[in-house]
Structure formats: C-alpha cells, structure tokens
Amino acid sequence: MSFYRSRKIVAALLISVLLLTTACSPKTPGRFDQAQQESTKQKSGQAVAKTATQGSEFNKFFPKSGGGYESAFAQEKKGFAEAKLKKGGKEVALLSISDTSSTPEAAAKFSKSTKKIAGYPAVEQGKTATAVLVGKYQVKVLSKATTFTASDRADWISKFNLNGLAKLK
Description:
Blueprint: H1 2-24, H2 33-41, E1 69-77, E2 80-87, E3 90-99, H3 104-108, E4 115-117, E5 120-125, E6 129-134, E7 137-143, H4 150-159, H5 162-167
Antiparallel strand pairs: 1-2, 2-3, 3-7, 4-5, 5-6, 6-7
Organism: Nostoc piscinale CENA21
Keywords: Signal
Protein name: Lipoprotein
C-alpha cells in the first residue's frame, strides 16, 4: 500500500510543479498585442467632446413616419443619433444627426459648399450620402437602396426640423 501512496504523492508533486512553472512563465506577445498598444495610446478621434450634445436631444428633430415610410431609431449616444428609414418593410436609408464638435474635420468640408438644402450648406458624400451643416450639427441621409436617389435624400433632409436644430445649444 505504501508503494501506491508514494506514487500518488509523486504524481501530485509533479502536477503541482508543472502548474507552477507554466503559470509563472512570461506570456509571449500575441500578433495583435502591438496594434492594441498603439491604438490605446492614440488620443485623437477616440473621445467624444465633453461639450457634445446627448443623442437623445436630437430625436425630436427627426422627420416623422408617413407617406408609406416608417422610421425607427437605431442608435443613440453622446454626440450622435441615427434612425432607419423603411418603405414596405425594406430599409431604404439611414437618417442621422451628429455633433461635429468632436470631429471638426466633418464640419470643414462644408466651407467650400455651393449647394444648399433648406438654406443650409450641403455636400454629397460619395454616391450614396447627402449632408447639411446646421450650426455645429451635421444632418445626413445615407441611401441603403438603389431606388433611394440624391433627390430623395435632399427631400428627407428638408423634412428634419433644421430650424429647431439650429436653436439647440
């Protein structure tokens, strides 16, 4: 019996030593560790400005459902709110309002704009997005369906309560 008992003790001792040495050995860096460290150190573009408006404040300026279209809020966070626009149950566009105080470069693109929608400077962003600048707020409509044209985007931008948004502080 003592042979079996000593064998169990030796086995337990070996397992303990094995666990101790593997737990205390230094971890080799993974292939994503360097990228994680670099992105953590970056300061620009990470934080929302302290002065940014809460996303819930934007909800009252969005267009209401109607005319065969249904809108539903999809995302809301500090400095941003977004709604999905559907027609016949299919998503046709994304509507959004964002506070540009966190991203001044977003507002800079409007400085050379010659186009206006509802009296506010407007820009086309690629072939699927139209945006206007209302004070420090960018109102944007992004087509998600090929049938939703630049003209449709401009119409939906004008359905936002832009004058009310301009008064928001």
